[in-house]
Queue: 4 jobs
Job 1
Amino acid sequence: MGRTGAEGPAGISAPTSDLRLSPGARAAVARRCGGACEACGLEWPWLLYVFRVDPAGPDGAANLLVLCTRCSQGRTGPFRPLLGEPSVRERLRAANNRRTGAAKLTAARRRRLIAARGGRCQVCGVPGSERQLDVHHRRGIFAGGDDAEENLMVLCFACHHHLRPCEAGCGRWAKLPARLCRRCQTERLISSWV
């Protein structure tokens, strides 16, 4: 017998161990339904549940149906809430923001930050019209970083995925796989000649 899951439609606790909802399937189903019940169109994602269309079929997005509490009454079988639990990183980010008083980095705040910083990568200077721009945390979330303005940088996707802090502690960034920034590398090279 499966374990019982979270309280679901009509307040009934149902077995959820048989419905394995992968993050990819959950994201595909959420995109497809747009956060609304696929039967009545209710736009309230906190009251939506994912069911199998064919009970014997796979747990892929094509075999999943999103229904609200009202539309799922009388339906049997395993289910999962549409909205999953926040990730460890998101819970840690919220805790760091509460601790420091920083505002959450929302999509609108992200767009304003990119515009305020010139719409360019702060490392290589490429404009956002040429490459996707990301917001990078100088001090990582797992290292106690928050969403404060001074902890955020605007980087193109190439720089964002190829940078790490310089191990010399100078405050600059080193491109992977290097451990030192160019300046510290040059200084070490010159000091080895002397």
Job 2
Amino acid sequence: MLSPTQRRYLRSLAHDLRPVILLGNKGATEAVAKELGQALDIHELVKVKLSGGDKDERQEQIAFLTGQTGAETVQEIGHVVVLFRRNEQDPKLALPR
């Protein structure tokens, strides 16, 4: 679990990021989760642009992606969500305590 300080730090880093994963009409699928897992291995902090739909549908997409990849939600604004997963073998980001 990320502490509030760590979330705040990751939000500041994510501000300038562009979405790496864009969900289409099919929404969150196994293939998208696999691509997201690879992106998280490389970058650790990833922005995802969710497909259209209401808030409940977006929440389902986020729950599916975090469940499949083991990532944590850092921030969620509209159709964009920021996810983080630590790469244990080769950490890229130094998190504050």
Job 3
Amino acid sequence: MYTAYIDLDDTLLDDKKRISQFTCDSLSEFQRRGNNIVFATARSARLHGLQDCLKKATPYYILHNGGEIYSHGKLIKRYYFSREQTMLIGAYLSHNGIKAAVITEREYYANYDAPAIWGNIENFILTDFSDTGLCAPKFTLMLENDEQIEKAAVLNAHARIEITDRNSTAIISPLSASKGMAVRYMQEKMFPGSKSIYIGNDNNDLSGFKACDTKVAVANASHELLTAADIVIGDNNHDGVARFLYKF
């Protein structure tokens, strides 16, 4: 039996954030053969924009880059920043002009006009994070230059920072949270004895690679992930994950 941990954006989803019917069928067939699928994503439980077939494809989710683990709609484990940590990190980012957002199941907090960039956002709250009383699952940053990358890196002593999308974005998570830590927890507590596969595309998937038996990168993955992979498969726009699982 295998458990496949699959990243969503730019791995399973194509550039238009969609999947084909072939991919849906391949996910079902992989599980019909007695295997498990876990979606491992930086997205929140909103899962905004996902096709219905994806929301129904598996009951197992790693959300917020490892900050939450869900099974059959139930929150199993959570790793969040404390209110004080959220306030201090958010205030530091805001003071240094770094665009930062915290997305929860109900609200979208940001220190910049996110709707002007991303379009209409339900329950959007403009904030510098100094008075939200929020326990953040993670911060998502938009990086505009190398100076901002260096300033964000100052937080390394207090948080886990993963630079993604070719240095244009970053994810700041609690030190206790990562996709890899979530994978290890699920392998031990939920899928003992199963062999693990991790399929991803970006640097925040590296911790998942380290936690799994087989490391798989899509062809459009970052250089770091391609270098670390055991197997390189087709890209996200040509059903790469589905074709790999179908033949596996």
Job 4
Amino acid sequence: MATKKPKSSSTKSKAKTTKPKTASTTTAKSVPEAPKTEVIASKPEEKKSCFCGFFAKKYEEKESILTIFKNPKFYGSLLGEIIGTCLITLLLFALSLMGLSSIATYSFAVIAIFVGVYAISGACLNPIITAGMMATRRMSVIRGVMYIIAEVIGAWLGWLIFNSFHLAGGDTAYAVPTMSEIAEGNFGIVAAIEFLAAIIVAFFYARAVKYKRSVFTFAAVVAGGFAFVMVVSYVISAAFLSLSNNFIVNPASALMFQIFPTSGENFGEIFGGICQALSVYAILPMIGGVIGFYLSDFMAKLSCEE
């Protein structure tokens, strides 16, 4: 009977051998190092100049000739400028007949007009102001041009109303005031008064815009500026230079005061008179308006005003 031999311990068995991990294998499977980041020293923030953005746009960038006429509010603004300038022109005609004694009444009336129109159009009501607004980029060019046209139309309506009542009064009515001093050799003096007055008016308006959240404060500052100009211009022209009816500080209204000559020896004389009138009552005042606005902006930036 055959017997099975027990397997001895010498029987070959596959021994499991583990190779020791070398340093190279352990480093290969180790956690990768974090990427090195360069530490850059932060530079101190440069302080911006107070004049940063001096010539930047201050109106809506979307406003252009292609979009402005699609906005119904724009036509309301034009109507506001027409009505406001009409009322201002009526007031100026009345003031020129009543004299300086009515300057307080004039100031209250200007406040009422600006408060009534400001929410509709911003109440420029004067090409001097409109020119300054365009030059300092507070208003687009197309809006400014349309505002000036509306202001001239409003001034014409004011003259039409005033002159209609004058004609209805017949011989007993006061004569409608006119501007005739520049035709008498006072071109330089009248031009200087208009130019200086325009700078002051524009400066006051530019400062008043800072208080636009309070409409009454805005209107009071503007009216105060106009009253100041009227008093100073009247004293300079009447007391020192013996002139009268020579300043108006509103190109749109000035056109209604018959500043253009209606007769002359030849066409050259008439054309020269027209150029003189336009330069004194329109061109120079509008340049003064631009200077007044930039003077206000320069002063505000120099003081780092918010």
